[in-house]
Amino acid sequence: MYIPTMDDMMAAHERIKPYVHRTPVLTSTFMNDLTGAELFFKCENFQKAGAFKVRGASNAVFGLPDDMLAKGVATHSSGNHALSLSYAAGRRGITCTVVMPCTAPQAKKDAVIGYGGKIVECAPSTSSREAIFAEVIKETGAEFVHPYNDPRVIAGQGTCSRELIEQVDNLDAVIAPIGGGGMISGTCLTLSNLAPNVKIYAAEPEQADDAARSFKAGHIIADDAPETVADGLKVPLKELTWHFVSNHVTDILTASEDEIIEAMKLIWKRMKIVMEPSSAVPLATILKNKKLFAGKRVGVIITGGNVDLDHLPWMKV
Amino acid sequence: MYIPTMDDMMAAHERIKPYVHRTPVLTSTFMNDLTGAELFFKCENFQKAGAFKVRGASNAVFGLPDDMLAKGVATHSSGNHALSLSYAAGRRGITCTVVMPCTAPQAKKDAVIGYGGKIVECAPSTSSREAIFAEVIKETGAEFVHPYNDPRVIAGQGTCSRELIEQVDNLDAVIAPIGGGGMISGTCLTLSNLAPNVKIYAAEPEQADDAARSFKAGHIIADDAPETVADGLKVPLKELTWHFVSNHVTDILTASEDEIIEAMKLIWKRMKIVMEPSSAVPLATILKNKKLFAGKRVGVIITGGNVDLDHLPWMKV
C-alpha cells in the first residue's frame, strides 16, 4: 500500500491548477451568531463538475503516463466521482467508462454523458457491479481510478485544505463530511504536514455511522447499504483512508437525518448557496456540539452542490 | 421632483459601506457557452438582508438628520424593501414600521421582525394599505421611505453598478430586472455618468410588462395587480424612475413565466446559487435575444435571493 506524501499533494496542486477552480471561502454573520464559532465555508459546490472530487480525478487523469492514454480510465460510481472523472478525461481527451446501476437517476447519467463519459449499466447490486466492472477493465484495459482508496485521488483532495489555510489564517479546526474518507484523508495529509495544530473533525450521518464506529473500535467496520439522505456518504472506509483517519482525526461526530436536512435548508436560506445534503452534515454536527467549537475558528468544507432540484429532501419531511 | 445626482450616489456609497457587502461577481463557462456572450453576474443575492434593496434603504436611514431619528422610518412593502429598511433601521437603532397585507407570507413577517421591524397589518387592497399607512405616519411622524420612487433610494441602488464597473472592465451592456424601476434608475444614474457607452437593458415578465409598454408609449402605463412568478416586479413605474428609464434605457425585453422559471432553475443548477424568480428575468431575456448579446461583455444583476424554499416555482409547473 503506497501512502501519498506531502510532495504528492504539492505535485497534484501544480498538475490540476489549469482544470479546477480555487474555490471561494464564504462567511456568514448569521451562522457565527448561531453557533458561537467563527466559521469559514470552503465552497467546493462552486468547483468544476460541482464537487471537490474533480481534484482527485484530475490528478489521476493528468498524471497518467502517455503510453496509458489510449486505453483511457474507468470507474464505478453513481455520484460525483463519475462526473468528475468524466470531466477530467474529457479535458485530457481520453475515454472514460463509468459502470453505473441501471437505477441511477437519469440526471446523473445525463451529466456523465454531458462531460463525455461512457456509461455501462449494471444491476443495482455489488455482485453485478463487480462482474460488469471486471469485464470493462478486461475489454478496455482502462486504468481504474477508485473514488477514494487511491493515493492519486487522496493527494488531489488534499489540495482543497491547502487552499483553505492559504485563504484563512489561524484556523483552530477543519471539519468535513466522511463517507469513504477521501476528502478527510486528503485533509489529514495536508494539515498534518502544513498546519499540525489544526484539529481535524469528520462529520457523518447517524444512519451511516460506520466510520464513527470504526474509529471507536480501532478497525474498519463496513455497513451493508446504509440509508441516508446524505447519499455521498454511504460508502465504507478502505485501508488507505483508514490509515489517515486512524492516525490524524481528532473525532468523528454524527447527526440525525432531520438535523442534516435542517442544516442544509438553513445554509440555502441564509447563505444563498445550493449544496448537497452530504455537505450539510458538518454544520449539523457543529450545531449539536456548540461547546466544542465555541470561540474557535473553524474551516467547514462544503463538498459539493449536485442536487436534484425536483426532489429536495425537505419536500419529503 | 428632485433628481438624484452623481454626487448623491458617491455620497451614498461612502455612507452605506459599513452596512452592506461589496458583493462578488460570478462567471460561468456553461452560461457563456449557452448564450454566446460573456456574462458577469453581480450577486446581490449575497447582499445583507438578501437583496440590493438594502443599499437604498441604508442610504435613506443613515442619511437621516439627528433630529428626525426619534420618530423613525416607515414604509409599505411585503417584499425585500421591508426587510432592508428594517435591517438598516435596526443597525442605526431607530424604529421601523412596515405596513404589510395580513395575507403576506409568515416567513416575510418573521424576517421583518427578525431584523427588528414593527409590522402593522392592512387588508390586501390598495385602499386599506393607503388608509392604514396614513394613520401610521400621522401617529408616529415617521419618515416615509418609498421602495423606489425616492432620490435617496435610487442613489443607493446606483452603488451596485459602480461596484460592477470597478470589478469588470470594458462591459458592453448591463441588464437588470425592472419592476418599479429603482435598480434600473440607479444603474442609469451611475452608468450615464461613469460609463456612458455601456448600454442599459431592463428585463421584465411578459405578464407584468407595464414598463415595456410605457417605454414604447412614451408615458407611464400602470397595470392593476399583474400576476407573475417574479413577485418583486409587479409594481409600476413612478415619475422619478420614469425619468431615468425614458432617458437612459436602450430597451426593455420581456420573457414568459415558463422562460423565467427555466432560467432560474438553470442558474440554481449550474451556478449553485439561490436567487429569486425576479433575478432570473435578465437571463431569460438574454436566452431569447442571443443575437443582441452575442460576443458582448454583459453585466447581469442578480437582484436578490429571498425565496420560499418550500414553494419553489418549478414545483407548480
Please, could you describe this protein's structure?
The structure is a homodimer of 317-residue chains. With 317 residues, the first copy, chain A, is an alpha/beta fold. The first copy, chain A, is 45% helix and 15% strand. The mean pLDDT of chain A is 96. Chain A has helices at 6-16, 29-35, 53-62, 80-92, 106-114, 126-140, 151-167, 182-194, 210-217, 239-248, 257-271, 277-288, 290-293, and strands spanning 25-26, 38-43, 73-76, 96-101, 118-122, 143-144, 173-177, 199-205, 251-255, 297-302. Chain A binds chain B through residues 24, 45-46, 50, 265, 268-269, 272-275, 305, 309-310, 312, 314-315, and chain B through 24, 45-46, 50, 265, 268-269, 272-275, 305, 309-310, 312, 314-315.
How far from one another are the termini of chain A?
Answer: 44 Å
CATH-defined fold name of the largest domain in chain A: Rossmann fold
Greatest interface and its participating residue counts: A-B, 17 and 17 residues
Which secondary-structure class do the elements of chain A indicate? alpha/beta
Task: Sum up the overall morphology of chain A in one term.
Answer: globular
| Number of individual domains of chain A | 2
Say how many strands of chain A there are: 10
Which residues of chain A sit in consecutive blocks of at least 5 with pLDDT less than 50? none
| CATH architecture term of the largest domain in chain A | 3-Layer(aba) Sandwich
Oligomer: homodimer
Beta fraction of chain A: 15-25%
Secondary-structure element order of chain A, N to C: HEHEHEHEHEHEHEHEHHEHHHE
Report the sheet with the most strands of chain A, covering strand number, pairing sense and barrel closure: 6 strands, mixed
Radius of gyration of chain A: 18 Å
Spatial strand order of the main sheet of chain A: 1-2-10-7-8-9
